[in-house]
């Protein structure tokens, strides 16, 4: 008894050391690359010392205004103004910036108030009519001379009266242009130069140009990102083991193979002992350290862990103007390499891990294949060429068809579609390729026949006043569970027919929204639903995502009440529990048309913010419940786990006891709240463009999915739709746990002989 008391006291005393630490991962695992674009104008911010204001092009008709910290080049604030500028003039006393129009607009002016970021009403009109207004640019750097001495470029600044040099400083080798220069003509010289390749370097010289006190560099080349691909970084340790296993597999004789394994393992132990100088103390310390039981987790260890868990990835982005770059996902988006491909108007980039090939395609149908993708150096070129396009049209969309062959299904601008391949041999196995294309007016089914020809199979043409507004095909993730287990232990079977697409159309006359579900093999309509008692706002985005046996769509309803709606539709074999409409003995063949239709249940929710885009997360095995990533109109990103949007949920009063027992069951609440904890972009300011999109990649941790937003800015984070069930919390006190186990073993060793002794004494009726 005494020992047990002692033991529990000991354990409890250890327990008190276990303190739960809530590790806030915000700004720790997520990162943002804020690209400004090419600098059109740089002016000092007179209201705030050590800040610069940079103007750059944002879109066809917008200018981006960026405030940066002059000391380190960090972005402090950005906003877009709806005016495309060609030049600017700083009015320092009123802290305003007058923008001059671009192109045809070059007689127009617009004034930004730099304190509020607002465009002043009618300011341009007044200015143009004021006779004494003369525009004087604030964007040009002047008063300096560039000289080339001994193959070094030098920047010189002369004294106006005497003609003597005040400053004479060396410029980087890559110098092409001075973009900004500010000086007091005696001690201080600050300037920004560019290298003609969207890299900008800042210098702050003091002591008359003798002392370089600050310098920074910004890479602005990654604007207009059109596509991206993820590439898992390889764990070198796993590589050696894989090699050994492959070698062992090649040995036919079992005994030789066994000897091989023993030998390699023995060698490994010997190496390990040698490394620790054959000292048992060192070995134990090393083991403890390796298992993070001692010492802090340093950067190297953290990186090893990221590699093991598949969190270390490269996000390879391709920009419209032909650049590809690798961003390190687990290291704050560091640019590992950044190269020009020589292409223009890239439309797609794909990475194939099996062959370690990166294939980049441009809109004219040229392709480049790169190989040996890693984080240390730019990839090497493997092959270059052009697809044989049947017409002289340009590609609008390219979809990779299979893993091993580089064959693509491309849609051309003239409305045609085609299958093209890197090798012009028989590319795909014709018998099992069905493809669906769509545009605003029609949806078409195709089958691939001999010689990679596309043959039309079916088509749906919309009525004259109807428009296709959203389209989604069923995700190809593996099916983990064929049914939902209800609270009373019965099963509701999911409808798992794979060849499905759903699409949304709007009737522009009465603004009714129709949602249809079709079979992609036959084009047969399987389900249709209509929102006829409300009018949909056509100007707001309508989004659709398709998961396993459900799809979710969002739309903005203008009447009767303006409200953002989110609707979930779930497909079941039958809505009756334990009933399966399909018969396992029947050979279902979509070509024979004997596919069962699903039974459908649907629920609508209100959402408090306007939704711009939806995307589903992907995880390695699809066991984790999916999350719906939502891009809001205010450029924030949030997510809802799928189980919150449940088509079978009931109001709390209607829920039976059995209903409440169902896994993840929650009552129906018509309006989904936005919780601050679910805003994954935190208080970041993300600048997006019309083509920005969300991408998702699985990791080796089933719970964790990587989400990135690409386009103008790049933003990446990790999300855990069902919590981090497969990760030990950082506060988990491994040392205490192992310590307790160790003490328990010691006590048991001591206790056993004592108890045996006591038993023996009892047998002999000896009293203590
Ligand atoms: C600018 O950067 C410097 C150095 O990192 C920092 O000390 C300063 O607080 C920053 N200024 C602003 C306004 O963030
Ligand atoms: C430039 O260097 C001088 C001297 O160190 C310093 O006073 C000034 O604040 C610096 N300017 C910026 C923008 O870092
Ligand atoms: C350069 O300037 C910094 C800041 O003004 C000062 O601390 C440093 O001593 C100067 N270095 C030289 C070599 O003058
Ligand atoms: C096409 O698929 C069938 C069945 O899956 C297979 O037997 C055949 O070898 C494949 N043909 C090619 C060219 O891969
Ligand atoms: C189990 O629950 C479902 C849904 O609540 C109901 O339809 C079904 O009849 C129940 N089955 C049994 C055997 O109680
Ligand atoms: C709850 O039950 C009431 C009465 O049976 C019914 O009118 C209502 O539609 C039900 N609500 C839900 C969400 O099922």
Automatic annotation (TrEMBL):
Protein family (similarity comment): Belongs to the EMC1 family.
Signal sequence extent: 1-20
Entry-linked InterPro entries: EMC1 (IPR026895), EMC1_C (IPR011678)
Protein's organism: Maudiozyma saulgeensis
Biological classification of the source: Eukaryota, Fungi, Dikarya, Ascomycota, Saccharomycotina
Topology within the bilayer: Single-pass type I membrane protein
Gene Ontology biological-process entries: protein folding in endoplasmic reticulum
Major subcellular site: endoplasmic reticulum
Chain ranges of the ER membrane protein complex subunit 1 C-terminal domain: 548-764
Pfam annotation, one family: EMC1_C
Localization per record: Endoplasmic reticulum membrane
Regions crossing the membrane: 735-751
Protein name listed in UniProt: ER membrane protein complex subunit 1
Keywords: Endoplasmic reticulum, Glycoprotein, Membrane, Signal, Transmembrane, Transmembrane helix
UniProt superkingdom: Eukaryota
GO cellular component: EMC complex
Keyword Zinc-finger: no
């Amino acid at each position: 008894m005494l020992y047990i008391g002692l033991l529990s006291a000991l354990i409890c005393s250890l327990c008190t050391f276990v303190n739960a630490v809530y590790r806030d991962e915000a700004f720790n695992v997520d990162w943002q690359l804020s690209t400004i674009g090419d600098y059109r104008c740089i002016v000092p911010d007179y209201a705030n010392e050590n800040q610069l204001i940079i103007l750059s092009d944002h879109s066809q008709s917008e200018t981006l205004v960026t405030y940066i910290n002059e000391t380190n080049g960090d972005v402090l604030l950005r906003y877009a103004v709806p005016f495309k500028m060609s030049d600017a003039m700083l009015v320092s006393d009123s802290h305003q910036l007058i923008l001059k129009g671009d192109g045809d607009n070059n007689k127009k002016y617009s004034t930004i108030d730099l304190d509020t970021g607002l465009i002043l009403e009618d300011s341009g009109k007044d200015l143009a009519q004021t006779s004494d207004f003369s525009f004087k640019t604030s964007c040009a750097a002047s008063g300096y001379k560039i000289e080339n001495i001994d193959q070094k470029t030098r920047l010189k600044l002369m004294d106006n009266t005497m003609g003597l040099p005040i400053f004479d400083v060396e410029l980087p080798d890559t110098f092409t242009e001075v973009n900004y220069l500010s000086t007091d003509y005696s001690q201080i010289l600050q300037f920004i130069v560019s290298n003609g390749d969207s890299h900008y370097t800042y210098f702050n010289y003091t002591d008359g140009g003798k002392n370089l006190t600050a310098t920074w560099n910004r890479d602005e080349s990654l604007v207009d990102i059109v596509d991206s691909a993820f590439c898992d970084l390889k764990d070198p340790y796993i590589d050696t083991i894989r090699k050994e296993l492959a070698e062992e597999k090649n040995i036919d004789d079992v005994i030789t193979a066994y000897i091989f394994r023993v030998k390699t393992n023995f060698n490994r132990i010997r190496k390990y002992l040698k490394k620790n100088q054959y000292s048992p103390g060192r070995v134990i310390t090393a083991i403890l350290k390796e298992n993070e039981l001692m010492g802090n987790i340093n950067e190297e260890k953290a990186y090893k862990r990221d590699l093991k868990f598949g969190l270390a990835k490269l996000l390879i982005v391709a920009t419209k103007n032909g650049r590809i770059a690798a961003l390190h996902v687990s290291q704050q988006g560091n640019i590992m390499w950044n190269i020009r491909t020589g292409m223009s108007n890239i439309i797609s980039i794909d990475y194939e891990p099996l062959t370690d090939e990166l294939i980049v395609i441009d809109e004219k149908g040229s392709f480049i294949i790169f190989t040996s993708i890693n984080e240390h150096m730019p990839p090497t070129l493997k092959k270059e060429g052009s697809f044989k396009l049947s017409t002289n049209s340009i590609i609008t969309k390219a979809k990779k068809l299979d893993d091993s062959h580089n064959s693509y299904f491309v849609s051309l601008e003239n409305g045609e579609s085609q299958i093209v391949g890197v090798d012009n041999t028989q590319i795909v196995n014709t018998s099992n390729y069905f493809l669906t294309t769509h545009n605003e007016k029609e949806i078409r089914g195709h089958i691939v026949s001999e010689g990679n020809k596309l043959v039309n199979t079916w088509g749906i043409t919309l009525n004259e006043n109807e428009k296709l507004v959203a389209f989604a095909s069923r995700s190809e993730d593996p099916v983990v569970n064929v049914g939902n287990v209800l609270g009373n232990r019965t099963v509701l079977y999911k409808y798992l027919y794979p060849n499905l697409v759903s699409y949304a159309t709007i009737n522009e006359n009465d603004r009714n929204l129709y949602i249809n579900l079709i079979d992609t093999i036959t084009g047969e309509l399987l389900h249709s639903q209509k929102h006829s008692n409300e009018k949909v706002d056509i100007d707001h985005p309508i989004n659709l995502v398709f998961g396993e046996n459900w799809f979710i769509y969002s739309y903005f309803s203008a009447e009767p009440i303006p409200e953002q709606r989110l609707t979930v539709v779930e497909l079941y074999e039958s809505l009756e529990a334990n009933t399966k409409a399909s018969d396992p003995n029947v050979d279902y063949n979509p070509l024979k048309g004997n596919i069962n239709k699903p039974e459908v249940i649907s629920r609508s929710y209100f959402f408090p913010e306007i939704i711009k885009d939806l995307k589903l997360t992907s995880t390695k095995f699809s066991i984790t419940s999916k999350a719906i990533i939502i891009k809001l109109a205010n450029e924030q990103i949030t997510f809802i786990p799928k189980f919150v949007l449940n088509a079978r949920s009931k109001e709390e009063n209607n829920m039976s006891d059995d209903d409440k027992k169902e896994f993840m069951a929650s009552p129906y609440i018509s309006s989904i709240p936005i919780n601050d904890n679910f805003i994954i972009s935190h208080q970041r300011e993300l600048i997006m463009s019309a083509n920005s999109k969300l991408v998702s990649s699985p990791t080796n941790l089933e719970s964790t999915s990587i989400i990135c937003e690409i386009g103008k800015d790049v933003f990446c984070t990790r999300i855990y739709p069902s919590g981090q069930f497969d990760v030990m919390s950082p506060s988990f006190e491994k040392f205490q746990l192992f310590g307790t186990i160790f003490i328990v073993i010691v006590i048991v060793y001591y206790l056993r002989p004592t108890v045996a002794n006591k038993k023996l004494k009892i047998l002999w009726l000896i009293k203590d």
